[in-house]
């Protein structure tokens, strides 16, 4: 087996540390705004565009009219209506009426991944009870469990970012 010079090893390690830092930076800033590039970076995306149809079919044919909002700038979690797509990142979650029309929540660290609570909070009040009734109890509805996992993931990535930057510098 040939011996690789130390300069090649150090250069390769520096390059890969730099790439790791760049990827972690993209991971951290992915949910800070809804512009073209960051909009596509998220931990989790959830499409709820078919929820209204499922609600209508499962609830004795009641109409789901008014479940969704068409206002992309309506505030989140105030009962103004569901959006079609939700995306969660480390610092916020965003909701989109259309692929390029959305709004993000306030930025905080770590943003907890609580999809069911977010969905119920966005739905108009007349849909809260039926939504809680038709969605079965599962990991999806266990917000404390999912929130603790996302908090742990945030801190691991945050510490990993710092350590990768230190590795690149050193």
From TrEMBL:
Residue stretches spanning the membrane: 7-29, 152-169
Pfam families in alphabetical order: SUR7
GO annotation, cellular component aspect: cell cortex of cell tip; plasma membrane
Entry keywords, A to Z: Membrane, Transmembrane, Transmembrane helix
Keyword Disulfide bond applies: no
A Gene Ontology biological process term: fungal-type cell wall organization
Protein name stated in the entry: Uncharacterized protein
Source species of the chain: Sistotremastrum niveocremeum HHB9708
């Amino acid at each position: 087996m040939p011996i690789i010079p130390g300069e090649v090893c150090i250069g390769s390690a520096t390059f890969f540390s730099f790439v790791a830092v760049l990827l972690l930076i993209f991971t951290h800033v992915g949910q800070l705004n809804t512009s073209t590039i960051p909009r596509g970076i998220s931990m989790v995306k959830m499409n709820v565009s078919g929820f209204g149809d499922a609600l209508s079919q499962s609830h004795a044919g009641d109409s789901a009219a008014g479940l969704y909002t068409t206002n992309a700038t309506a505030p989140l979690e105030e009962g103004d209506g569901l959006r079609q797509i939700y995306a969660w990142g480390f610092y916020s979650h965003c909701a989109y009426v259309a692929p390029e029309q959305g709004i993000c929540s306030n930025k905080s660290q770590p943003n907890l991944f609580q999809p069911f609570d977010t969905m119920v909070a966005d739905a108009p009040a007349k849909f809260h009870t039926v939504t809680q009734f038709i969605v079965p109890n599962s990991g999806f509805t266990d917000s404390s469990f999912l929130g603790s996992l996302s908090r742990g993931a945030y801190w691991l990535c945050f510490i990993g970012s710092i350590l990768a930057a230190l590795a690149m510098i050193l």
